[in-house]
Design goal:
- This protein is of the alpha/beta class and 686 residues long.
- It folds into 4 domains: 46 residues, ADC-like domains (N-terminal domain of TfIIb, Single Sheet), CATH 2.20.25.90; 264 residues, Rossmann fold; 177 residues, Dimethylsulfoxide Reductase, domain 2, CATH 3.40.228.10; 112 residues, Barwin-like endoglucanases (Beta Barrel).
- The chain contains 24 helices and 30 strands.
- It has a 7-stranded mixed sheet, with helices on one face. It has a 6-stranded mixed barrel with strand order 23-27-24-26-25-30.
- β6, α3 and β7 form a beta-alpha-beta unit.
- α2 packs across α21.
- The chain is globular, with a radius of gyration of 24 Å.
- The relative contact order is 0.16.
- The structure holds iron/sulfur cluster.
- Iron/sulfur cluster (SF4) binds next to α1 and α7.
- Its cofactor is [4Fe-4S] cluster; Mo-bis(molybdopterin guanine dinucleotide).
- One of its GO terms (molecular function) is molybdopterin cofactor binding.
- Belongs to the prokaryotic molybdopterin-containing oxidoreductase family.
- It catalyses: oxidized coenzyme F420-(gamma-L-Glu)(n) + formate + 2 H(+) = reduced coenzyme F420-(gamma-L-Glu)(n) + CO2.
- It is an enzyme of class 1 (oxidoreductase).
């Protein structure tokens, strides 16, 4: 033990796995990170990102004082001055003219307060967050199929699977401590299948790799469903007792495109591999499904997830350990931000903003007479559309910890949209590409400087514990919002002394969190929702006896394959798909300021197939131009055999060569998620 060193147990600020870590603190500085040995998920291990999670905290670049833009430049201001200005400007707008963009990087308490501020103070449901860009298709599809949009199982029971089907997820690099469970399951004899256009580290570890063409998920899954039915491998008992709609599903997959040759033609996966995968998924029980944004970020995102729900119900793989439909959330608190109602159509706990009973409940908890209209607000992607294409309709934008200039599709259009905002506020820990465009910037506390909770990908509500004070005048997002509400005359409804006060209100407002308290979260294993009462043990596995649908049954929803919004053409002959690096997280503002992480991968690259590269005369490491119909970027080529021919891959973290300058903002019609994972592109030598 080093003298004067204290260790504070908290939760990793990066991916949705939610590993427990200990911040080592000396002289009011976080000097290191240790894995939390007693934590059930990571069991004393951390990935690279978690291991160096402290390195950005004391960066010289941290925002330390409020800033107001005057004459095109930011000047420091007092909190009073900044909050009075924001209060005055926000008060001048109508509810439909403002938009609130919350964040999966912020705590549950902060997201809850953010949507409360939008709904109580500004009387608008125009509130959303970055789940719109990652798992909104999951929430829509699983709510329809199962009655709940959440991961059905636990990270801990994955090891009991005999088969794990991973599709559209590079689990080893993006959720490394779930990747570890995959390895442990394999050691116990489980077979792993990976469907991915790239031979990722996850695909290399798999027993079977299905090199799928981007944008053909429904075709592959329908092909698997058909082969399972033809093989007589479906779980008849489960289908009859627990589901409805099977016959329509069966009829849908009897079309030619779902035969083995038809599926192979569309997806590019060899027939024999499709057949082998179908047999493994259906006959090695229990089988678990893991998926991520390779599935969800498509104009057919909702259909892709519905098809996967069909597959797992068909094989009876719901409601038991080692099975389930398991969407892996990218950011640490995507699940929580959704749970807290940072969405345009629901209050916390997915209570509809349109239903009288839910509105009455929220008015009672919030102590207000009136809320805004009983109608869902617009999504963040629709907000960008309106700002870019119909200037003047929306006027004010309030951001908490988000950087849409890097994370939204079609960057040039995003820039046009943000330039059309009349008044923009950004609560942030660093100046970012988006914050530069704001009118007022408010310095926020980082994860190490505040209390709260995060809810990880398997619905586990966990504590975040304050280790040090924020730098300068920065303060937690929840405190900023409380002060602003006070400045706008709503002090009584936002009178919180500490984050725990807010969480107690969350428990009163949110049936699935009703039994959770800070006291109960002291144990490292924390609690998984639903947890409806103070003695309820939490719920590791959903849908054990009945689904959460009104009739208690799982609903098969037949879907048919349709191509992505943009397909290769003569001018743009390649399919561009985007993703992440092991070393970086999201828009890079934290990991790129970390000495150990930023130094490993300093900039972006385009990954391309070696045969494609040879035809174009492009060598490994050569700087090339990648273009789509929306823009162009220049970056080095990584020439490899580990990506499908005709496909290129660009990670999206890097502002100097932003993948999202190229991506297509076409939306899924239901979830409004953009098609980040497939657009037409070209590569040119410089
Ligand atoms: Fe953090 Fe995710 Fe790595 Fe765990 S796996 S240490 S939560 S980044």
């Amino acid at each position: 033990m080093i003298p004067d060193m204290k260790f504070v147990a908290t939760t990793c600020p990066y991916c949705g796995v939610g590993c427990g870590l200990l911040l080592a603190v000396r002289d009011e500085r976080v000097v290191g990170v240790e894995p939390w040995q007693a934590h059930p998920i990571n069991e004393g291990k951390l990935c690279q990102k978690g291991r160096y999670a402290h390195q950005f905290i004391h960066s010289e670049d941290r925002l330390k004082t409020p800033l107001i833009k005057r004459g095109g430049s930011f000047v420091p201001a007092s909190w009073d001055e900044a909050l009075q200005l924001i209060a005055r400007r926000l008060s001048s707008y109508r509810p439909e003219e403002v938009f609130f963009l919350a964040s999966a990087k912020a705590t549950n308490e902060e997201n809850y307060l953010f949507q409360k501020f939008a709904r109580v103070v500004m009387k608008t449901n125009n509130v959303d967050h970055c789940a719109r860009l990652c798992h909104s298709s999951t929430v829509s599809a699983l709510a329809k199929a199962f009655g709940s949009g959440a991961m059905t199982n636990s990270i801990l029971d994955l090891e009991e699977a005999r088969c794990i089907f991973v599709i559209g997820s590079n689990t080893f690099e993006q959720h490394p401590l779930i990747g570890r469970r995959l390895v442990l399951a394999r050691r116990r004899g489980a077979k792993v299948i990976s469907a991915d256009p790239r031979l990722t580290p996850t695909a290399k570890e798999a027993d079977l790799h299905l090199p799928i063409r981007p944008g053909t998920d429904v075709a592959l899954i329908n092909g698997l469903v058909r082969r399972i039915i033809e093989g007589g491998w479906e779980d008849r008992g489960f289908i009859e007792e627990r589901t409805r709609g099977f016959e329509t599903l069966r009829e849908t997959v009897m079309k030619e495109e779902s035969t083995l040759p038809g599926t192979s033609r569309i997806t590019g996966v060899p027939e024999g591999d499709i057949e082998a995968a179908a047999e493994m998924i259906a006959t090695l029980k229990p089988a678990a499904l893991l998926y991520s944004m390779g599935v969800t970020q498509h104009t057919s995102g909702v259909e892709n997830v519905l098809a996967l729900a069909n597959l797992m119900m068909l094989t009876g793989n719901i409601g038991r350990p080692g099975s389930g439909v398991n969407p892996l959330r990218g950011q640490n608190n995507v699940q929580g931000a959704c749970d807290m109602g940072a969405l345009p159509n629901v209050f916390s706990g997915y209570q509809s903003v349109e239903e009288d009973g839910c509105r009455r409940r929220m008015k009672r908890v919030w102590g207000v007479e009136e809320l805004g209209e009983a109608r869902a607000g617009i999504t963040s992607t629709e907000m960008m559309e309106i700002l870019a294409d119909r200037p003047g309709r929306m006027k004010a934008l309030y951001l908490m910890g988000e950087n849409p200039m890097i994370s939204e599709a079609d960057q040039n259009r995003v820039r046009r949209a943000l330039d059309n905002v009349e008044f923009m506020v950004s609560q942030e820990i660093f100046m970012t590409e988006t914050t530069e465009l704001a009118d007022v910037v408010l310095p926020a506390a980082s994860f190490a400087e505040k209390d709260g909770t995060f809810t990880n990908t398997d619905r586990r509500v966990q504590r975040l514990r304050k280790a040090i004070d924020p730098p300068g005048e920065a303060m937690p997002d929840w405190e900023i919002l409380s002060r602003l509400a006070r400045a706008m005359g709503y002090g009584k409804m936002f009178d919180y002394r500490r984050a725990e006060d807010i969480f107690e209100e969350v428990a009163r407002a949110t049936p699935s969190y009703a039994g959770i308290s800070y006291r109960r979260l002291e144990e490292p294993h924390a609690l998984q929702w639903p947890c409806p009462g103070p003695h309820h043990p939490g719920t590791p596995i959903l849908h054990v006896e009945r689904f959460a649908t009104p009739d208690g049954l799982g609903h098969f929803t037949p879907v048919e394959w349709r191509p992505p919004a943009e397909v290769p053409s003569e001018d743009y002959p390649l399919i561009l798909t985007t993703g992440r690096s092991l070393w970086h997280w999201h828009a890079g503002s934290m990991t790129r300021r970390s000495k150990s992480l930023g130094g490993e991968v300093e900039t972006g690259w385009v990954e391309m197939n070696e045969e494609d590269a040879e035809e174009m005369g492009i060598g490994d490491g050569e700087v090339v131009r990648v273009s789509s119909r929306r823009g162009r970027i220049e970056l080095p080529a990584r020439v490899t055999s580990e990506i499908k021919r005709g496909v290129i891959f660009v990670p999206f973290h890097f502002a100097e060569c932003p993948a999202n300058r190229l991506t297509n903002a076409a939306l899924d019609p239901v979830s409004k998620i953009p098609e980040f994972k497939a657009c037409a592109a070209r590569v040119d030598k410089l």
